[in-house]
Design brief:
It contains eight helices and three strands. It is mostly helical and 199 residues long. Helix 2 packs across helix 3 (67-84) and helix 5 packs antiparallel against helix 7. Bound molecules: fe (ii) ion.
Length: 199
């Protein structure tokens, strides 16, 4: 059965002025939608057709004969995870068990912020920055192109898309301004806390 493109979890104007309606229309309705379409086309009639995106990603990671399917499956999954990593009125600081774990593993919340800014700024070209649980330790990581932490047996807690299509209409080449807006105004700590609690 074909995988369906999930709707955005908020309206197209909900993230303004930090991410515009125009960016969300292109990013969700064109970029994300195309990954989903290409994924469905690629797995139709194969034994991957009945599997979830996560199962497909884990099953074919590193298989050089299935790079195209992997890229579209991972990009379909990454984007849904990204939409949920954002919310109107987000940013600020986490609370509860996740806040305690960030302080324990990074030294302080500010040190987490610095690590995340460094990873997302220095990802060369297209990719993603992540907060993950690796074993019992929180880490900030970055991945290139479509790659994601599921292939490293890490549990993703939140992500930031640093492909140019995520920010170019609103920030042009100023990726650090987009990263700052995410951390201060958009980051959905409730989503990260849910993922942490379920890990
Ligand atoms: Fe994207």
């Amino acid at each position: 059965m074909a995988y369906q493109l999930p709707a955005l979890p908020y309206s197209y104007t909900a993230l303004e002025p930090f991410i515009s309606k125009s960016t969300l229309e292109f990013h969700h309705d064109k970029h994300h939608a195309t990954y989903v379409t290409k994924f469905n086309e690629a797995v139709q009639g194969t034994d991957l057709d009945s599997k979830s995106l996560e199962e497909v990603i884990k099953a074919i990671a590193g298989d050089s004969s299935k790079t195209g399917i992997f890229n579209n499956a991972a990009q379909a999954w990454n984007h849904t995870f990204y939409w949920n990593s954002l919310k109107p009125g987000g940013g600020g600081t986490p609370s509860g068990a996740l806040a305690d774990k960030i302080a324990a593993d990074f030294g302080s919340f500010d040190q987490f912020l610095e690590a995340f800014k460094t990873a997302s700024t220095t990802q060369f070209g297209s990719g993603w920055a992540w907060l993950v649980l690796d074993g019992n330790t929180l880490k900030v990581t970055k991945t290139s192109n479509a790659d994601n932490p599921l292939t490293s047996n890490q549990v993703p807690l939140l992500t930031l898309d640093v492909w140019e299509h995520a920010y170019y209409l609103d920030y042009q080449n100023k990726r650090p301004d987009y990263i700052d807006a995410f951390l201060k105004n958009l980051l959905n700590w409730d989503f990260a806390a849910q993922n942490f609690a379920a890990a």
